[in-house]
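I am hoping you can look over what I have pasted underneath with an eye to the fold:
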Amino acid sequence: MRRSPTRTGGYEVNGVLGTRPYHLKRQLETAFEKGISPFLLISYEAGFPRKIYESGELTQGFKNSDFFTEVLITRRFVNWLPSFIRLIRLIERDTPPEALGISHHITFEMNRYKAHLIEAADSPHLVICYDDWFASESYRCARLADLGLEVLDNTLGKMQRYGAGSSFSGMAIEVSELDIANRWKTMQQDPYAQTFLELARQDRDFMAVLSESFPDDPDIVARLCAP
């Protein structure tokens, strides 16, 4: 955020992964100079900072008005947390799996998750739940209709290479085999993960917005924390 999307992160053009961000920058600049408006999709991770968005500084080199629409994507907390714990351990391979550094990453990102959920609940933007999108063809159709998009392909597609695929299985299995809806069950016998669930459960503001966004999640958190 606040950086140039053509100079940071991964990108692809017409389905082909790119390796030279400056080349992408020149392609876009040439198109804009000619009055061409390409289909351009920019994705940011780590929440929606409303103040940065309202200042017009979210996407360096572009104004908010340059985009036809914005979409916020959320994920159920009970399925996001175990995926993130696993992901950060993969990133920090040389760090003990329950070290303070790992724990700091997790609590920091939990706070950012909370902030994003609060902003999404109070935002005029379309909000799409990743869990529901993955699970339901009718949900995908409804959200595409909200965006004014025709349903051309309602399958789940292929595993994406960004982030090396699934945090649980990498690129090893097909998308249809992913158990997205039940990631929370991996925390049933995991005291370390349950420590973070208990921290979340003690945060009343977080539990309130979580209940509003995902009504089943607080009960699952409570069950997982039960002795």
